[in-house]
Amino acid sequence: MNQLFSLAIHGGAGTLVKGQMTTEKEIAYKKVLEFALDEGYALLKEGASSVDAVERAVEVLEDSPLFNAGKGSVFTADGNHEMDAAIMNGKTLDAGAVSLIHGIKNPIRLARDVMEKSEHIFLAAEGAMQFAQSLNYNLEDASYFYDEFRYQQWQDIKGTDSFQLDHSGKKESKFGTVGAVACDQQGNLAAATSTGGMTNKRFGRVGDSPMIGVGNYANNKTCAVSCTGSGEFFIKGVVAYDVSCLMEYKGLSLSEAASEVINKRLLYIGGDGGLIAVDSNGNIAMPFNTEGMYRGSKTSLGEKKISIYGE
């Protein structure tokens, strides 16, 4: 039997409340999701590794101002952008992550360089920036990350103690931690996640996205997972690794494990959000407990889906 290969991507859970989503916006979001999906899948089809595929898919999403990662990152309380990203290779369990970085056009690329060109897994803030400089990364000017919508989002709560999660339904907002998971033609898994964090965040807050085993995890024995949602709760629940554990130790299928974590365990502790996951047979699961989650998937059986709201 030929190995089934597949790719799934997400652009954040929560989404615009259905009444606020205009047809134009929906088309714009779906167009970027489809481009990211097609770019990553094309690599898998050519025989590239799952690591290459998830990195490429996430780069496309980072390059779009529609999602809270890379170019579309939200403003911190100081009016800056602090980005986080992580990538993991399910075959070797090698991983790379960066946090609190600025000026880097594609944080996921830096995370991969940490994985492949350093002896470490997680680099943060100035140290991560020094590492980027040692590899001659170009730093983008702050104007590259400026987005009028994100700016207004920040102005609304600037100077207060409140912060705004990407997917909060309080007002019309753009969303979107982004991520990708893939199973390649060799049955190897990989996961990648990237985010701009939360609007008006202070004190160097870091969410779940760059934490290995929390917002991002991959292990050929079980699954590859990328999460999106209320980061603090995902950290408490060690969500990505929890899905893997349920598969490894309880023998649950990918869809059973993913659903148990998102629809029961996470809800039980008060968290909302979703995840995308894939196993080494190419099966995909994309559960979420919010009104929607920007998501897409494509498999070598010719199945392709791009959705925003619950089916």
UniProtKB/TrEMBL annotation:
It holds the Pfam family Asparaginase_2. GO terms for molecular function: hydrolase activity, acting on carbon-nitrogen (but not peptide) bonds, in linear amides; peptidase activity. InterPro entries: Ntn_hydrolases_N, Peptidase_T2. GO terms for biological process: proteolysis. The keyword Thylakoid does not apply. Keywords: Autocatalytic cleavage, Hydrolase, Protease. The record marks G176, T177 as: Cleavage. Substrate binds at R205, V206, G207, D208, T228, G229, S230, G231. The active site is at T177. This is Isoaspartyl peptidase.
